[in-house]
Design goal:
The protein is an all-alpha fold. The protein contains 20 helices and no strands. The radius of gyration is 22 Å and the shape is globular.
Length: 462
């Protein structure tokens, strides 16, 4: 029974997308449970601000080297090599595994040493007690990118062999680990217990995928060869993309720095609203993009351009058809969503109103946010990581300018600030500057989407 479970393969893109959508829904629902538990236990408080700030540097490493590097480069190359020589491809997998394990450990050790300096840079508004706790939690969280880095390589293997069932379980187990930390460790260890739950979740994310990778043909070998031409091609594809992925992570660090100087709870409010607006992304945008990515990679490698274009447009229309009405519903029922999910325990009414307004502003760009993963994977499949990188850097610069500009203009009475307060019924709240952050993110997402679509059409000559 277990063997059949770990060997299960989807037969079509629709089936893969369905499995990913269902698992993503479960994972996102667990994420909502996680956020509700955090809001109930800690409220929009200093400790929760610290917890979210502690993710910034480990998340930077994860997103730049793993989500934007290994994942992007590995699957297209694995698809290409596997068609030519299966034995050499498995040697390539082992080499990638060992090289990146060594690299991640080294980078995380260096970052752990520099953590006090880095934390002071990204949280200039924190007091000494908050800084000390942020440094401790950040150092613990460095175990997460190491475990998730290993997991991502197995994820690429499972995606190639259409083993989406097991692959889809990993984020579910990740959220379960955090929830267990909140329930069983937080009562005695506070926010430290939640952080330990994150590491346990990352461990589960990694281990659940190993049996399926082994059944696909993987067997571990201690290969470590930086001179191998295949590993060089991984780095060749990674380098420009890592720069591109660094851009939104730098944006989040800028947001953290700005929010640390705003009233207590601002970072928590922004993060909760951001997590909620990513629910459609996890439910629709990412599952469909991930499901189509292996097809994109195989079709382009086999020079079947017409099939590539046809699948791209059909998936594009499907995402748009689903996401537009969902965005309207989220905007209309934003108050009820916040009330049900976050308005509990120590999460105050004022924090709930600010979170609701933030969610409303995020909905402006949800359609773009959900289509960007599809556009990016189309670029990755044709092994073009430079164009998305340039666009990401442009978007980063614009977002930083917009963040500072909107936060500043919403920090004192003026026509724009008064209009925003009236629209979201926030007249009794003195400082609504944090609303500038989701507004900036939405405008920036729309611009990034438009640029990616324009240059993709030019690249594949539609």
């Amino acid at each position: 029974m277990f063997k059949r479970f770990f060997n299960f393969q989807t037969k079509s893109i629709g089936a893969a997308a369905g499995i990913l959508a269902i698992s993503s829904m479960i994972s996102r629902l667990l994420g909502l449970v996680r956020d509700r538990l955090l809001a109930s236990t800690f409220g929009a408080s200093s400790n929760l601000d610290v917890y979210f700030a502690a993710f910034r540097i480990p998340d930077f490493i994860y997103n730049v080297l793993i989500a934007g590097g290994i994942i992007v480069a590995f699957l297209p190359l694995f698809s290409e090599f596997f068609l030519k020589n299966k034995k050499e491809t498995w040697e390539f997998v082992n080499n990638v595994l060992n090289v990146f394990l060594f690299s991640l450990i080294l980078i995380c050790l260096i970052a752990a040493i520099l953590t006090p300096i880095l934390v002071k840079i990204i949280t200039p508004g924190f007091n000494s007690q908050q800084l000390s706790l942020t440094i401790l939690l950040t150092r613990i969280l460095f175990f997460s990118p190491i475990l998730l880095g290993l997991s991502s390589i197995f994820s690429g293997v499972l995606q190639y062999f259409n083993k989406f069932l097991v692959y889809s379980l990993s984020p579910i187990f990740y959220n379960l680990g955090i929830i267990l930390g909140i329930i069983f460790l937080a009562p005695s260890s506070g926010i430290l217990g939640v952080t330990l739950g994150v590491i346990f979740g990352a461990f589960l994310h990694f281990t659940i995928q190993i049996p399926s990778a082994v059944s696909a043909g993987f067997s571990y070998k201690p290969i470590f060869n930086l001179k191998d031409s295949k590993i060089r091609r991984v780095f060749y594809l990674m380098v420009p993309r890592t720069l591109g992925v660094a851009a939104p992570q730098i944006n989040l660090m800028v947001v953290t720095a700005i929010a640390s100087s705003l009233p207590v709870g601002a970072l928590s409010i922004f993060t909760f609203a951001n997590n909620l607006q990513q629910f459609p992304l996890g439910l629709i945008g990412i599952p469909l993009a991930v499901a189509i990515f292996p097809f994109f990679s195989r079709a382009w490698a086999a020079q079947r351009k017409e099939e590539f274009i046809e699948k791209f447009f059909s998936t594009f229309r499907e995402i748009l058809f689903l996401i537009i009405p969902l965005s309207f519903l989220i905007f209309i029922f934003r108050n009820q969503i916040i009330e049900i999910i976050l308005r509990t325990g120590r999460f105050s009414e004022m924090a709930a109103k600010m979170a609701s307004a933030s969610l409303g502003l995020f909905t402006l760009g949800i359609f773009a946010t959900c289509l960007i993963p599809l556009l990016l994977r189309a670029f990755f499949a044709i092994q073009d990581t430079k164009t998305p990188t340039i666009i990401a850097i442009i978007a980063m610069i614009l977002n930083i300018i917009l963040c500072f500009g909107f936060v500043w203009i919403l920090s004192f009475p003026n026509f724009f600030q008064i209009s925003m307060a009236r629209f979201f019924s926030l007249q009794e709240i003195n400082n609504i500057a944090v609303l500038g952050l989701p507004l900036a993110f939405s405008i920036d997402s729309i611009l990034q989407f438009a640029l990616l679509l324009f240059f993709l059409f030019r690249k594949i000559k539609i």
